[in-house]
Amino acid sequence: MNQRHGQLAALAAALLFGCSAPLISLFTADGSALSIAGLLYAGASLGLLLLRLAQPRKAQETPLQRADWPGLALLTLLGGVVAPVALVFGLAHLPAASSSLLLNLEAVFTLLIAVVVGGEHLGRRALLAALLTIAGAVVLSQGSLSGANWQGAGLIALATLAWGIDNNISQRLSLRDPMQIASIKAIGAGLPMLAGAVLLGHPFPAAPVIAALLVIGALGYGLSIWLDLLALRALGAAREAVIFASAPFVGALFAVLVLGEAPTAALAAAAALMVLGVALLLGEQHSHWHHHEPLRHAHRHRHDPRHEPRHGDPHHDHGHSEEESAEIRRDRPYWHAHEHDHDATAHAHPHGSDAHHRHHH
Length: 361
Description:
mainly alpha; about 60% helix; 13 helices; globular
């Protein structure tokens, strides 16, 4: 997947997740926070299963390896259990305005971890895009910290930090099968919450609301998580966070256009800032001479026997075994997945912070 496809995947993920929030708000009085969250992730699991069945068999991906399971377990624990529970308890201690403002910390934490710890690079244009998008989210939340207390603020900050770590671990695992990762994450988050709701005697919604929540979860969580993993693979965690930070604006706009809520001046200001920020990022062309160290890994990649300049991938011109070669159509570009080596090389072309471009600047 190239950068443009990754950007479109991130926008689609933000669109689906953003629209899910105002829809979920219609049903919050029909059950407990734990039961509703569990149903949303159950819907995500079902939606991903249907998507898996609809995928063509030739869509090869590299499955998770033994070394990947600790990271997957950690991101499921942090993003699927710790963050939602901290969020629920934090919301109980804070006014809505303060909560909305503090939730913007997720994009900040994701960016900081990606750049400082993960070694991703943001140029001036991408950094300005990040600042504009986050500023838009702050304006949209119309939040102030009046009425906040340290317990609630700390819990919300913990939730956003957990999601920020989750996003960066997910980026590292995104070379593996995104469908497999998203499915395990959804099941690993949904089952404990549903079990906890049952054991604690929490109320569940009526059947029609359960059906609605399953559909919302399938689209706003399942499909969105899968698309987000594709975006993380192509863009890196920092650039994905910039685009995904537009999700609250999408939700607010959806509430105005579909649910009939009144538009506000904050929505208009946030729209201007976020549209400008995302447009800057989409128009970014980061290209310079860079060096690749030798590397061996496994992931889905494209070969182009005809070396088409528009689609050619300069990083995947390696050879193949006899068994692999027997399945290759050499008269056209093709995708497949296997373990392969990258020789040391130096060249110049547009690139982002994907797995092949973590070099120094």
